[in-house]
């Protein structure tokens, strides 16, 4: 059995997998390349802990994990996840926010974008065929839990080539979507 630190964003127990993404791993993700290049390459942007109780690709299995996005910006753009479509496009996912404030960016395969506000207790259903990226717009770590199908896989290449439909940047008084989009 595994134990969750729900608000701290940690999973304890055997077989927990972990990864972290630092500034140096995210060169193609942020728009302002000069701002990116001026930052310490080892600056932590986000980390993920997750459990795979079945083999990857098992039809009908589920994975469970947590992502912690640090507060910060690259130029005007807030720290965020790389974002992806699922390799098996029809696979959906749930996110739920434990702590912090952010924006879930969603984009369908025809590049139509929308967003949902993330705040403690918010639950987000990500349908299949929908790219998803999370942006930390707050001053504290943004911690969210996720549950996704074992055979969903990750397609990072499509966004690497084509980018996301929208970006989230610091506005004068509140975060702003570019191009504008109803929050
Ligand atoms: C997996 C799920 C999350 C992300 C994590 C990091 O399907 O959506 O666990 O992997 O939030 O984001 P990314 O875009 O770097 O995988
Ligand atoms: Zn996903």
Task: Summarize, please.
The protein has 183 residues and is mainly β.
Protein described:
- With 183 residues, the chain is mainly beta.
- The chain has a single domain, classed as Jelly Rolls (Sandwich).
- It has 2 helices and 15 strands.
- The protein has a 6-stranded antiparallel beta sheet, with no helix packed on it.
- β6 and β7 form a beta hairpin.
- The chain is globular, with a radius of gyration of 16 Å.
Oligomer: single chain
CATH architecture descriptor text: Sandwich
Within the largest sheet, what's the order of strands?
3-4-5-13-8-11
Per DSSP E runs of 2 or more residues, the count of β-strands stands at 15
Strand content of the residues, in percent? Answer: 35-45%
Q: Which sheet architecture does the biggest sheet show?
A: 6 strands, antiparallel
Parts with pLDDT < 50 across at least 5 consecutive residues: none
The backbone outline, from C-alpha atoms, is: globular
Helix amount: under 10%
Q: So how many helices?
A: 2
Characteristic key phrases:
183 residues, mainly beta, Jelly Rolls, six-stranded antiparallel β-sheet, globular, binds D-sorbitol-6-phosphate, binds zinc ion
